[in-house]
């Protein structure tokens, strides 16, 4: 039985890899998507006065519909994949905000709870598939684990970012610098010391969420709150525009495709 047949028998139908190669473009869009997740959630819930409950319900439905679209594809399609990432960023932010602002649960509690949930997803994923590599997202089950992990990285990142910037009074810009330095430290562990690539990828991925959220708050919040005062509308449009242009380039150039033999 060949490799593809084993996957088909044990893991569901085999697909081409469903995620992009980890390039500079990947990190640029990812950080901007996390920023949009923060500013767009605030824009809808506060600026447009929709409230957390209505905003959460609408965005969850839109996200689930897009996720179904993404899951039904048999290969990586940049516009659909990155739309899913942007929407899961918004939903992850709203999940955290609902627990903290809606139910009054502390940021410490939500940060710990989401960390436990994320660890549980990783543990189940590895126990079932024996790998956490994004180069192996070639079955529906692996992709389900992948998006589950992504959701909790966004929810946890929102709570941790708000905890440092607001509750611990570090400030948005200072929090962004802290998380940026932490990502550089992870990069150093990988490139200089040679720490496991999969481990470093996921740690950096988790850290980009509070980094992007802190950048978004710093740009959008008024000066009295420690921000630059650009507002959620301007910040969201600016970052969405850059994301759109980058995704269009990647769609045309195919610069972030993982070769299928390498994926297998």
According to DSSP, the number of beta strands is 0
Q: Low-confidence parts lasting 5 or more residues at pLDDT below 50?
A: 1-12
Structural class: mainly alpha
Helical residues, percent: over 70%
Whole-number count of domains:
1
Mean pLDDT: 89
Strand percentage lies at under 5%
* Overall geometry: globular
How many angstroms does the end-to-end distance come to? 15 Å
Rg is 18 Å
Order of helices and strands: HHHHHHHHHH
Largest sheet: none
Total helical elements: 10
Task: Furnish the topology, listing elements before pairings.
Layout: H1 3-11, H2 24-47, H3 51-72, H4 78-102, H5 107-129, H6 140-167, H7 172-193, H8 197-220, H9 231-253, H10 260-263
Describe the structure.
By secondary structure, the chain is mainly α. The chain has one domain (15-263). Helix content is 77%, strand content 0%. It has ten helices and no strands. The protein has helices spanning 3-11, 24-47, 51-72, 78-102, 107-129, 140-167, 172-193, 197-220, 231-253, 260-263. It is globular. The chain starts with a helix and ends with a helix. InterPro entries: DUF347.
Gist of the model:
By secondary structure, the protein is an all-alpha fold. It has helices spanning 3-11, 24-47, 51-72, 78-102, 107-129, 140-167, 172-193, 197-220, 231-253, 260-263. The chain has one domain.
